Amino acid sequence: MLSSFSIFAQNANKAEALLKEVSAKIKAYKNMSIDFKYALVNQSENINQETRGTVVIEGEKYVLNIMGATRIFDGKTLYTISPDDEEVTVSSSDAENEGTITPNKMLSFYTDGYTYTMDIVQNVLGRKIQYVKLTPIDSKSEISHVLLGIDANTKHIYNLIEVGKNSTRTTLTFNSFKTDESLSKNLFAFDKVKYKDYYINKID
Fold first, then answer.
1. Pairwise CA distance, residues 94 & 73, whole Å
2. What is the pTM of this model?
3. Which of 39, 134, 149, 176 is placed for a possible disulfide with 171 were both Cys, Cβ 3.0 to 4.6 Å?
4. Residue 144: which of 169, 124, 122, 123 has the closest Cα?
5. Calpha distance 82→26 (Å, rounded)
6. Splitting the chain (204 residues) into consecutive groups of 10 residues, what average pLDDT does each group show?
7. How far apart are CA 29 and CA 198, in angstroms?
8. In this structure, are residues 187 and 156 in contact, taking their beta carbons and an 8 Å threshold?
9. How far apart are CA 97 and CA 78, in angstroms?
10. How far is C-alpha 43 from the geometric centre of its chain's CA atoms?
């Protein structure tokens, strides 16, 4: 039993060390531009959705494009732009659910609230992907576990697989990952002139 506990502890320590290495590398970047694929599967509910998106992140700020909508967060205010509805929803960051993995947290959410263990290694198109299994410390969490796939060579996150207790499986796969690019100084600013004909929905 002591031998098993020792192996488990070593496994957890390796997982934590790898995640710290990934986190330190991400924090060193001034900005990140990511092209990703989002997939949601729940066989019991016959749900199988897949879409692509892009996100640019600089510190707390981000611009996310997915499913025809754009979300701009300038560090204080979140603007959700829906061209189909010709509507802009304006809210403070406090309006976000604290449990939600927002774009500026999706590469660092794992640093708090989880226990870690090393999982399987996969070869993906010649890339060695080491998975780390994250289990929520909060037993009331709706998440069963998260598998974080890490490129063993670059120490970049390759994908994120979240498995819910209701059997919903959400996968984010990062198709391209660019860093420290020259960004427009107005990239994270909401230009109200562009949306003067839109309905502005302000949420306190």
1. 12
2. 0.84
3. 39
4. 169
5. 30
6. 53 90 92 95 89 94 94 93 95 60 76 91 94 94 94 94 92 94 95 93 84
7. 35
8. no
9. 13
10. 23
